[in-house]
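ARCHIVE CARD
Drawer: 12
Card no.: 0347
Subject: one protein chain, sequence and derived structure
Cross-reference: see card 0346
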Amino acid sequence: MDTGQPLNALRVFLVEDAASVRRKIALLLGAIADVLVVGEAEDGETALAAIRQHSADVAVIDLRLAAGSGIDLIATLTQTMPRVITIALTNHSGPAFRAACKTAGAHYFFDKTAEFDAACRTIEALASTRSTRVADR
C-alpha cells in the first residue's frame, strides 16, 4: 500500500489542546515536503504514549494542554526519549515561558502567532537534513 509519503519522512507529532488549531497546524505541516504528521493529542499523558508508539522524530508542543503542561511534557521527553526533537509552539511566549522551555530541554521555541512561519521553516530544514542523511546511507 503506497501512502504517497516517502519512507524517510520526518515523523511529526502535534500536542495542542484546541482541536481546530491542531487540524490547521497538521494541514500546514503536512504540506511540507518529507514531513508526515503521525498523530495528535490534546494532553501530555496521551501524547507521551503516542509519541513513543508512532516513533515520532519531532514533537510540536503547545504549553497549555487539556491536562498537564507542555513544559512538563518537554521535560519528560528530554529525559525519556532524548532523540525526539521538541518544539514549543505557543501563544505563551514571554521570557519566563521561553526560559522554562529551555530549562526543560526544548530544542526550539516559537510564538504561534508571530513566528509560525519560522517554525515551519525549521521543520522543513529538519526534514531536509533527515532526507539527506537517509539518502547517504
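Annotation on reverse: Residues 116-135 form the longest helix (20 residues). The beta strands are 10-15, 35-41, 58-61, 85-90, 108-111.
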